[in-house]
Amino acid sequence: ILCDKCTDIYNPNVITASTGTVFSMPIAECPPEQALAWLVKHKIKIISTSPHAQKIYCNENLSGAIAIAAGSEQHGLTEFWLKNCGASVRIPMLGTADSLNVATSTTIILYEIAKQKKWGRV
Hints:
Blueprint: H1 12-17, H2 32-41, E1 45-49, E2 55-56, E3 66-69, H3 79-84, E4 87-90, H4 102-116
Parallel strand pairs: 1-3, 1-4, 2-4
């Protein structure tokens, strides 16, 4: 679900980075208020990532229906999403870097979701 559209999903760089999978995923665009109403109606937990969050991502229960609110790399999440997310989690960082780019942090969270749901295991 794209809100506050700032990414052109059909930009050649986006298509290349997605290795074409952008064409195999359902994509919806709507205002944030409409997305939030839909997520709440369908009882989907909304999490965000922030280097300032108290909870570590792998300690959060991500086994149910989950939406990840991800902001732009330059500005982060909007105040609307920060206020309306059910949980905010962080990815522990070593060294001097204090954050990851949005694609990397979302991938780490998606992997943890798959792990907790035991996807890919017999």
